[in-house]
Amino acid sequence: MDLELPELPFPLRTYGPDGHWLYEDGVLSGWAGSRQDRFVPPSGEGLDPVSDAPRLLGAPEGDFQLIARVTVGFGASFDAGSLYVHVAERAWAKLCLEYSPDVATVCTVVTRGHSDDANSWTVEGSSVWLRMSRTGRAIAFHASRDGERWTFVRLFTLGEEKETGAALVGFMTQSPMGEGCVVTYDHIEYRPSWPDDLRDGS
């Protein structure tokens, strides 16, 4: 299924399990089903390395920032809504608002063959602003409590500039331990630029 959002200059396509994606009145919503996640355990144990989760992705050109306020209907540990970037089957990353494991937390996963997992800071309530940016082969993650002042979370790459420049980006939902959860994204914004400074709050 293809979906066009007026805030984005590129169409979105669904990947993975059916996320029941819906866009209405400026709000994008998606559903993660039971035990759906995207994670490749570095230990080789635990979650199925071929597990998958609903994704809605498109292909921006050049430098960009993708911004959204994410709200998660938490029901179980590790329920999450994410901004997601995909270069290859074992080269992808997600910036999440996750119930980790009993408090809402900004966390990141970067997968280069296997996944890492890093928590950043906790959030009161069930909403937070997330921002993903790209220039060349560099990708940056930021989060914000109010959509105005941004906290730097992570800077990384998933490959050379040619590979990262062809990345798919967008939205993902997950419920690895639960029976499913609904995620909404509003205040969606696209900027065709890289942030002026990654660490000054802008």
TrEMBL record:
Pfam families on file: DUF1349
Alphabetized Gene3D superfamilies for the sequence: 2.60.120.200
InterPro entries according to UniProt: ConA-like_dom_sf, DUF1349, UCP022704
Record protein name field: Uncharacterized protein
Organism from which the protein derives: Streptomyces lincolnensis
